[in-house]
Design goal:
By secondary structure, this protein is an alpha/beta fold. It has helices at residues 19-26, 70-80, 139-143, 154-162, 169-173, 187-201, and strands at residues 7-10, 33-40, 45-50, 59-63, 85-88, 96-102, 108-117, 133-134.
Length: 203
């Protein structure tokens, strides 16, 4: 009845995506400022920014070594603005954007053409980001990651504990564990449910 009181966002095992969509997702979570800077070799820059309007709720973000590219920068931006507590394990560190060029013989070459920089101007290339609270999965939990439940997922449990979030089964069971994973047979349906749930809770 009172709406969402805090947010737990899962970007584990998330290979990233488009910068534009990442920035759009971050805008309602951040205050006014830079979200990300893309810099070409010639020095030209594209800067993504957020406005002052934002959701003022406690946020925890789950990360791991498979939080890559846009997913990694999503977490980094929230951390640098002190808007979220990162829970999980150290990310790998991808700091460059690639572009594929078609050659005349039909082959193609994939080249790094831009560098990514966080709101504070840091490159994550080969460095990554460290969680504020490190929680490791066992080898067995890692192998069965997509089958973890709130009761068997220590990283999720720690994030919920940090945000003082009680486990409500009908909320979790009707939403995706991690939208990017496409877990289950109807990933698009789960995504629509997640968006609808978000909109309802943040009215």
């Amino acid at each position: 009845d009172s709406g969402a009181q805090s947010l737990v966002i899962d970007v584990r095992h998330n290979g990233g995506g488009r910068v534009k969509e990442m920035s759009a997702a971050l805008d309602p979570l951040l205050g006014e400022g830079t979200i990300m800077t893309l810099r070409m070799k010639n020095g030209s820059e594209t800067v993504y920014t957020s406005d002052a309007d934002h959701i003022d709720l406690p946020i925890a973000v789950l990360i791991d070594d498979q939080s890559i590219s846009a997913a990694e920068f999503f977490a980094a931006a929230l951390q640098e603005y002190d808007r979220a507590t990162l829970v999980g394990t150290h990310t790998t560190g991808k700091g460059r954007a690639q572009r594929t060029y078609q050659l005349s013989d039909g082959s193609a070459v994939n080249l790094s053409v831009e560098e990514y920089f966080t709101p504070k101007g840091k490159s994550l290339a080969d460095v990554g980001i460290a969680p504020d609270i490190e929680v490791k999965l066992t080898d067995e939990q890692t192998q069965n990651f997509f089958f973890l439940t709130p009761e068997t997922d220590p990283q999720l449990q720690k994030a919920m504990e940090k945000n003082s979030v009680p486990y409500v089964s009908h909320v979790y069971d009707n939403a995706p564990h991690s939208i990017s994973t496409g877990r289950g047979t109807d990933a698009e349906g789960w995504l629509n449910e997640a968006v609808a749930f978000w909109e309802e809770q943040t009215k």
